[in-house]
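Subject: Predicted fold for Transcriptional regulator, RpiR family, 294 residues

User T.R. writes:
Posting the sequence so we have a shared reference for the thread.
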Amino acid sequence: MNQNVSTKVLDRLSKELDELTPEAQKAARYVLENPRDVGVSTVREIADAANVKPNTVVRMARQVGFDGYDDFREPFREAIRNGEASFPDRVRWLQDVQKKGEMGHLYADMISGAIKNIEETFAGITEGDLQAAASTIWNCRNVYTYGVGVNHSNASNFTYLARTGMVQFYAVPRAGSNATDDLAWADERDVLIAITCKPYRSDVVQAVKEAKQQGVKIIALSDSPASPIARMADHTFQLSVETPQFFPSSVSIIALLETLLSFVIATSTDRVVERVEKFHQRRLQLGYYEEENK
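User M.O. replies:
I've generated the C-alpha cells; pasting them so everyone works from the same file.
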C-alpha cells in the first residue's frame, strides 16, 4: 500500500460522509482534516481528538470497507514508512506534473511560481519588520488600505478580516468616492497601506503623495525598493509577483496581508480576540453558518 491508497481512502470517506451517523461524521471530519495523525495514532487517540467514542471510529472505518481501525490505519502507516506522508520533494513533484502533457506544464509553472513568490517575499522580511508595521497600525486612529484593480479586492479582503475584531479599518476608495476624498481628513494619527506593482498605478502613487504631505504614515506593498510608493513609505514590504501568465500574481500579497494582520492581532489587547469570538458567535446565532452535526 502507499499514499495513493490512503488518498483513495480519504476520497471515499469524503464521498460517504453524509451517509454516516452524526457521531461518525465527527470522526470522519477529523480524519479528513488530519490524515497524518491516523498513521501514528491509536483508535482511542483519534476518538479523543475527534471527541467521539472509540467504537464510533471503528464504525467509520467499516463504513468505507475496512474490517476495523487497524485495517483502516494501515495505508496511512505505509505512507509514513515510505516517506510519502509529508509534502513531496518539490522538484520531483513538479516533474511528475509536467509529464502529464501540455496543460501539465502550465500547471507546474503556476504552482512553482506561486511557491517561489511566497518564498522570495518572506525571505526579504523579518519578524521585526512585521512587528514595527503592526505596532504602527495598532497605535493609530484609522487604517486605510488602498489598491486598484485586483489589489482593490486584496485591500477589501484585508479590511473585511480586520473589521471582525477592529472598527478603524477602511478600504478605499469607498463606493461612489475616490481615494483623495476618502483621505481628505487623514493626518499623522492615521495609516495608509498602499498596494501597487509594475506598471505602477498613478492614482495610487498620487494618493500616497498626498497622504504623506498630510502626515499620514505609509505602509507600502510593492515589487521593488525603487517603486514610487516604496520611496515615500515609513514601512516597505517588497513583493514577488512573477507568474507565467500575463496577469500579476496576488498569492504573495494575500499571504503578506494575512501575516501582517496576525501580527496586529498579536500586538493588540485581549479585547480584540473577544470581539472576534463575539462576531462569529453572533453570526452563528443568526444562522449565517451551516452547523455541523454534534
